[in-house]
Amino acid sequence: MHVPDGFLDVPTSVTTGVVAAAAVGVALRGARRELDDRTAPLAGLVATFVFAAQMINFPVGAGTSGHLMGGALAAVLVGPWTGILCLSVVLLVQALLFADGGITALGTNVVLIGVVGVVVATLVVRGLQAVLPKRVGLVAPLAALGALISVPVASLVFVGLYAVGGAAPVPLDDLTTAMLGWHTLIGLGEAVVTGMVVGSIVGVRPDLVHAARRVLGTRTVELRTPATEVPA
Amino acid sequence: MRGVPTRIVLVGLLLVALLLAGVVSFYASGSPDGLERVAEDHGFIDTADEHATAGSPLADYQASGIEDSRLSGGAAGVAGALVVLVLAGGLTFVLRRRKPSRG
Q1: A100: nearest CA in chain B?
Q2: Residue A231 — pLDDT band, cuts 50, 70, 90?
Q3: Which residues of A touch B93 (CB under 8 A)?
Q4: Is A93 within 8 Å of B18 when comparing Cβ atoms?
Q5: Which CATH number applies to A10-218: 1.10.1760.20, 1.10.418.10, 2.60.40.790, 1.10.443.10?
Q6: Could you read off the pLDDT tens digit of each residue along chain B, which spans 103 residues?
Q7: Of A4, A14, A113, A120, which residue is 20 to 30 A from A102 by alpha carbon distance?
Q8: In chain A, what residues touch B44 (CB-CB under 8 Å)?
Q9: Which ipTM score applies to this complex?
Q10: Of A89, A168, A186, which has the smallest distance from its Cβ to B43's Cβ?
Q11: Which chain A residue has the Cα nearest residue B55?
Q12: For residues A159-170, average pLDDT
């Protein structure tokens, strides 16, 4: 969903640029709490993985493709603030070196792919973790669900931006239907990839996964001592 | 820690990323993505400007100067992955909380 230059007018692009810059600024502070000697290298590799996975467009039918956005994956693996930073680095490199996503649209893309993806997935995962049993095995399915929802939500935010500052007059109901339809299909792919990657890491090292640590931390250790037999 | 050493998890993630960017990317779908498809169907794809960095040596995920498109795409992907690793890894390394130094 990388937005090129020209789709949105200048005021809208400036506005998303300001929002993106503010989000990155807050994320720079928030990420300090998420990163330590153990999680910092993982965060760098999560960004690398997201960049690589975004190169893999998968078909979603009728001459259309999609690729992982990665916001949900990064948020679950390394935390929301670090996730926003990871996605921002990926989008910056793509725009500057790979001509993928416009330069003036960089703020728009950071908002849509970085901030919206991370925030939606974080709300879904944390919201459900609060009400569901605290089980590590639920982290990957919840991450997949967050991923599934995050993609169509990001497409709706694009429609909102287009309604305000789109370059061409397009009937909004048609645009909404088309964007939601394709991005729900892409969201299914996002869910599968996110679930598989999170599941793989949770399977071997749940303590490395940000969203799993919350569950691991609350797990109580039950000490069962054999009942001493009372002499009759 | 318990289970698989952290180093193995990190190296595994790096290898998968390099494999995706360097090899699997060649087999990725070339169809327009969801947004491009919608822009085509609704007549606003032409409002996209030519990209300001279209002349970059890595533009459109092809390394300029390499004829073979498989090698060119793979080289561009690996180069991009390593740039992201250095930038994101460097940033998170600087931001991390240090272990309290002993002594």
Answers
A1: B60
A2: low
A3: 40-41, 44
A4: no
A5: 1.10.1760.20
A6: 468 999 999 999 999 999 999 999 999 999 999 999 999 999 999 999 989 888 999 999 999 999 999 999 999 999 999 999 999 999 999 999 887 655 4
A7: A120
A8: 7, 166-168, 170
A9: 0.94
A10: A168
A11: A99
A12: 94
A205–B6 CB contact, under 8 Å: yes
Q: How close does chain B come to A20, measured CA to CA in Å?
A: 17
Cα A118 from Cα A144, distance rounded (Å) = 13
Helix (H, G, I), strand (E, B) or coil at B97: strand
Reduced 3-state DSSP string for A155-168: HHHHHHHHHHHECC
CA distance A226 to A229: 9
Nearest CB partner across the interface for A93, out of B33, B43, B84: B84
- Best of B13, B16, B36, B94 to disrupt the A interface (most A CBs within 10 Å) is B13
A102 contacts B84? CB cut-off 8 A: no
How crowded is residue A59: how many other Cβ atoms within 10 Å of its Cβ?
15
Q: pLDDT digit string (tens) for A87-97?
A: 999 999 999 99
